[in-house]
Design brief:
Largest sheet of chain B: none
CATH class of chain A: Mainly Alpha
Distance between the termini of chain A: 37 Å
Strand order of the largest sheet of chain A: 1-2
Helix content of chain B: 55-70%
CATH superfamily of chain B: Cytochrome c oxidase-like, subunit I domain
Order of helices and strands of chain A: HEEHHHHHH
Number of strands of chain B: 0
Number of domains of chain A: 1
CATH architecture of chain A: Up-down Bundle
Order of helices and strands of chain B: HHHHHHHHHHHHHHHH
CATH topology of chain A: Four Helix Bundle (Hemerythrin (Met), subunit A)
Largest interface: A-B, 40 and 40 residues
CATH architecture of chain B: Up-down Bundle
Largest sheet of chain A: 2 strands, antiparallel
Strand content of chain A: under 5%
CATH superfamily of chain A: Cytochrome c oxidase, subunit III, four-helix bundle
Number of domains of chain B: 1
Shape of chain A: elongated
Structural class of chain B: mainly alpha
Shape of chain B: globular
Helix content of chain A: 55-70%
Structural class of chain A: mainly alpha
CATH class of chain B: Mainly Alpha
Oligomer: heterodimer
Number of strands of chain A: 2
Radius of gyration of chain A: 22 Å
Number of helices of chain B: 16
Strand content of chain B: under 5%
Amino acid sequence: MHTPQEAGGHGAGHDAHHHGVVVPAPPGFVPHVVAHHFDTAEAEFSADKLAMWLFLATEVLLFGGLFAAYFYYHGVYPETFKVGGHQLNWRLGALNTLILLFSSYTMAMGVRAAQLSQKALMQKMLGITVLCGLGFLVVKYFEYAAKVSHGLVPARWFSDHDHVMAGVENGHLFFNFYWTMTAIHGLHVLIGMLLILWVMKGGAKGRFYGGYYLPVDLVGLYWHLVDLIWIFLFPLLYLVP
Amino acid sequence: MTTYVPVAETEARQEPGAPHYLNVTHGFRSWALTLDHKRIGLMYLIGTVASFLIGGLLALLIRVHLWKPEGAIFDPELYNQVFTLHGVFMVFFFIIPAIPAALGNFVLPMMLGAKDVALPRLNLASFYLWLCGLVLATIAIIFGGVDTGWTFYTPYSIQTPTAVIWMGLGIFMVGFSSIFTGLNFVVTTHKLRAPGLTWFRMPLFIWAVYSTSLLQILATPVLGITLLLLVFERVYGIGIFDPKMGGDPVLFQHFFWFYSHPAVYIMILPAMGVISEVISVHCRKPVFGYRMVAFSSLAIAVISFLVWGHHMFTSGQSEWAMMAFSFLTFFVGIPSAIKEFNWVATVWQGSVALTTPMLYALVFLIIFAIGGLTGIFLATLSVNIHLHMTYYVVAHFHYVMMGSTAIAFFAGVHHWWPKMFGVMYSEAWAKLSCLLIFVGFNLTFLPQFIMGSQGQIRRYATYLERWTPYHQASTVGAVILGVGFAIMVAYLLHSLLGVRKARRNEWGGVTLEWDSPSPPPLENFERPPVVTREVYDYSVLNPKS
């Protein structure tokens, strides 16, 4: 990853120490002021980036608990998971995988545009990313609706009135995993979209440029993780062996 | 014993009347929206101590109830709620945040020579998450309390009519508050060390809090998802932990202890860091085997992830798993013993000043030795079968958590009190209170070891006649303990009147926080510190010796 350009040094001497270093910006952008407790823009950038990576580690562990439970029950009830997996529409799942993969590409291009101070391109790329997230949720809505119509809903309301899971033990367990994991993931997609919109708001005001694009970068990392989790969810739920 | 004379030159640098972090701004908003790590630490200090007092009152009620074999106050259902709330408040609202979030927030950036933590806004957010957790826990108490014990074992926690959902969400929030604090400290330690402050010049408190923070970041999310699944279980019957629906309640125990065993090290590791600081400063000696003590913190952090199964020796695990968990639990005793022995070696031939913080540190050394050793007995498979779920476990846990962590917390509070508020408390009262706490603590929990080894099961509202003397001794001890803490609250509050001003370097420490006025200014130092010496190099204070 690129690090921001040199932040214009400590030209202002002691004064700069108290009010924060100013990162010079090209015309049309708002210069970023480094937080008062950092000496340089690099220090701020690397600190916030490390924090984001650590936060992503906590996200991985949070989903890790779900995955561990999934694997455990997959081992206990392999038939249930096999039959349950066949009830899901793998074509829609694959479509959503492609949508998210493409959105990761546009997100990366958005970060690139921010690094090059290309405001219009950045806004465009981020906008496409948000639309991809929306597309993902719309597809998910149709999938959920199909499940609801078959009574394949979370536990307490699980009816399975078409008896698709009749032949296996504890058929509801597979769908409990399906709903819980995809709903928590979907919530992350929604949060990611809101974060990108927030970044776009700052972008419209010209806050992000070659010398300072930290929020774009961090939201991008988050978006890639959300994408990555789906890359694991898709085969586990839709393509169960 | 030699008396330490602070260097006149350091004293002279303090300008009387210069604004400090407490009076630089005024009003409610200046505190509620503060980004200053010292103020946030102070708010955490008030919050965690308040939780400790609530948890302590509940403990006193439990002990008074157990004065008689048939129980003196509560019916059994209410008794279940009281011990659950005692556990939840002490574990999640006091011990876990107390040292890192209250003392750590104040001291860690100063020890690193930084102006603040790396992410001040996240720091404030973490405090408010903690507060939201407390509000949700209060709502849980209003809507029927919780009677599952602080471990929330399924399937009972799915069936009980009490307010498990509210409490679960409250602890979920507190968990994320703890994650954010840990994350902040890791980043601060990596990125904001003063020039010259290399990793092996860092005070051992930083090493301990750093190791703790790694645990907070890596273990707490698993508790988060576990509690979330428990909430789902109750809201829509997800079935993962419910045997009626094909789920497995033992999986809940695995998940819970995958967090909660590291969590007991989240509680004890920072306490060990405090003890390293206090012993070094009040014995005027570098900590013996500095690197080994530093690495033992990391070793404890790593091994603690691999021992969770020792809570489940009677829950149904394979024999091989039990043997592995038993072995690994013995193994974690090694880094703990390294610390204990190195502290004793530090005291040896030091010029020991028997100040209040030092007394607490000595109390820690004694109690932690007992608490740690009894843990080794519990890690032994055959012995564990006999002692499982007895008062022996309760006594062991309290020797390590109350007798060690809470005592170290109070060592730290007394050690940094002059730095935090610029005032000194009455040492005479402080020593009296320390004595009462030491006597009261041992009187409370030593009998529980004996009862437990004789088979007295924990968490029961009533007991057999033959244990009456032990229970009554324990209750008397708890009352003495309560008196000790009441005295502490009184003299600490009294000290805030400012009758005795504290010196800049009250004890003669050489870590960076003592190189700042008491109380410190908003950005901690009058000029950016540069570290040129090895850690704990006391020659700087007394060049003639």
